[in-house]
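Pipeline run #58 for the internal structure catalog. This entry was flagged by the ingest filter as a single-chain record with no existing model, so it goes straight to prediction. Upstream metadata was stripped on purpose; only the residue string is passed forward. Reviewer on rotation: M.T. Logging verbosity set to normal.
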Amino acid sequence: MSRPSPRPVVIFVGVRKNPLEHRPALEAAHRDGFSVVLLAEDPPAGLPREPLAAVRAVDPHDTGAFDAAVDDTARAYTVAGVVSWSDAGVEPAARAARRLGLPGIAPAAARLSRNKYLMRRALAGRPHLVPRFARVRTWHDAVRSLEDIGLPAVLKPAAGSGSKGIFLLRDAGGLRPAFDELTRLTGADGGSIFRHDRGELLLEELLVGSEHSVEGFVHRGEVTVAGITDKTTSEPFRLELAHLHPSTLPAAARSAVLGLTRETVLALGFDDCAFHVECMYDPERGARLVEAAARAGGDYIGSHLVGLASGVPFHENVIRVCTGRAPRLADHPLRYAGLRKVAAPAAGKLVRVDGVDAALGVPGVEHVAFDRAPGAAIRLPPEHFSSSLLGTVIATGDTAASVTRSLDAAVGAIRTEIAPSG
């Protein structure tokens, strides 16, 4: 699909899969005076027509085809910026921005953001920021690294995303099955996100404490933080189950998290991009890095939570920064915003979901979105790392406690029926 556009365009390298997430990004560009050219491997159906100048199916990991699509776009339109909305597009977007002479993170820094081993190696001279770590490519590497780092530990893909493939190791017996599963996941038959990092794993010491992400921007070397998000994850696979924005951390803890964030993004060379920094905070050891992504936070953090809490849509600032302008943020949050996932109680086939209308009727609830439709196959980790999360409830309130009450009531109203497989 393509059509003439009197407006300058922003190239979107992919979009979030759920319409509730990708529409705010498209609408933010359109409100700011731009049309969008979407370059995506598998463009979703049902995209709104008005913000789009063109949609082209191209694999961002196919360097030749993607660069040709960027060049074609530059010949057909006036391109004002390039932005990625997911980890898979960060490196192609950086290369495209450099190719067109536009603002954007440098390709070398984008590479650090996409490979957790390279990220930690770049920060190795700052041991207060990162856990002890080792690269794992062979079974011998895995055994030796676990002996060096000790238990408990975490084994995960060097280039993973979305909590895919995180194995918590509390005893040495868990190493072999985790290594075998991750070797399969990241191998030749694995997803395209691992294309440039096949079979590369990271083993590191287990960080303890509370989990958080920091949302913000770097523009011309200046770091601007939009806020800290508190996160709740599952054990042992660290699937993200709930978020709350802004954080309820005490002042000293917030200061430590913000200090880690600023030092990390500048040390990694982030500039002219949004960032989503994930970390753990322990009162005894301070804040330490989990990972730093050079793009807006997904999972409704950027698309909804920051804007609902602050009154300033985060994606509008993503567009500002990718087109060379400084972000504009609110001085103080107006309220709290949070989400809770609806998790499958068992594997099987999703038969039906009841109670959505009741959940939407709970005071404070803003949205209920389901990613799995009746008939979908539901698998649990480690067989699959996302299909067990069926949907999301988003709520707002004047206090963190009121948001928690709304989410408890709404998720409690939803009933799912899952039939055994076979």
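catalog note: DSSP finds twelve helices and 19 strands in the chain.
catalog note: The chain has a mean pLDDT of 93.
status: ready for reviewer M.T.
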